[in-house]
Fold:
Amino acid sequence: MIRPAVLFVCLGNICRSPLAEAAFRAEAARAGLDALADSAGTADYHVGEPPDPRAVRTAARFGSDISGYRGRQVEAADFARFSHILALDHANLQGLKRIMPAGSGAQLGLLLDQVPGRAGQAVADPWYGDEEGFLITWQDVSAAARALVAELAR
Ligand code: 4NP
Structure:
């Protein structure tokens, strides 16, 4: 099997996509799946910054340390480095389509397309809400991570 390389993309790369990356890493480790994982934002607002403290606390509650992650902006070259590029919501999927080089072989889609019954849905942005929203984010990205690892391990 060619080693899968998965990039998770939200807006700021400080809330949703770092949690998606962490959930995927944990699930891949549990399944013994050798995969590359990273996350990025379509915006450059938080480049070089650690994840939102609420995201760091939520990941820690579930056994993942994301305090060392740093924000970065997605770039066209990512389409050559990753086999799967998964957007957390529709606006970010549109942003990715705008920068996708012609002829890219990367599989591009919404993260929740992985989850039976949730195709076409977005992972809600928890940035403006309270910490409870990050728990919902964690549940969403964990469900997607489980489905994605099962699919990649097949
Ligand atoms: P994320 O959340 O896209 O899940 O990382 C956001 C982070 C920052 C902003 C918006 C959403 N912002 O406007 O700075």
The two ends are 10 Å apart (CA to CA). The beta strands are 5-10, 36-41, 84-87, 107-110.
